[in-house]
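Please review the protein record below. Let me know how this chain folds according to its tokens.
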Amino acid sequence: MSTLLLTRHEVRALLEPTDALAALLADLRAAFGATPQTQHPTATPPAHRVSLAPDPSSDERDTLVLHDPATGVPRAVMGASPLRAARTAAAAALAAALLSEPDAARVALVGTGTLEAWVLRLLPLVRRVRTVTVFDPTPLRSGPFVRRLAEGIDAALVPTDSLAEAVLEAEIVVCATGSREPFLYPGMVAPGAHLMTLGTGEGPRCELAAALLRESRVICDDRTLAVERGGVGGAGLGPAAVHAELGEVLSGRRPGREHPEQVTVYDGVGAPWMDLVAARRVLRRAQEAGVGRWVAAP
């Protein structure tokens, strides 16, 4: 049996095309909509198993290993960082499709990292984005970010050095700074806004103040992880602050947004089973495109 090796650059290139992002979005929609017993790979025998290992040869921290469930032999070894960012962003886009107002067109990005860039590629698949206001806590980062991404985005990208200006009229606010100190408080966002605080599982963060979370409807990808590593726990709140998981809303077991003035929050951490869903998609596209290098399995 052979193992496919994929660098993080190859993984990124495989996921960046619009059709690949749309396929990943559909994969996650199907997985989130499944019952809890079939949704999580730990509950039933999966097509593959996923493990994360440190990559000492790279400034990227993780390598993802996709195992055959029957033999345990690695079927693929791939750079994990773009895959994890893409799956977190795809889940965020799915949350926006379910929770933001259907005509939401004004977006604010708080942060100019890799995760925000993936979200910016995915949001137009679920909403007709017209304007994107970009703010970064580090001065002078917003402008280069806008220039780098403007060519591939069919929306007006506007850098700003004012957080208040960025979020004031935004209908969707995306935060992925990793901050451990809150910067969004009640009264700063518009009625009916949909807010997202996102990470890829590194540790607790606190971008939205506890008071803002308490007066909003909070949805997460995983309750336990939202408390342990997400914005809910980072704000000092417990599971009771979470109204529902995304899968519960998608399946109709719990309601999402219930009126236009309601502020909704998606706390996306990135559950481990999402790595599995994304890795399957990457492996399939790599095999179809003939990308990567096959080596004898250990």
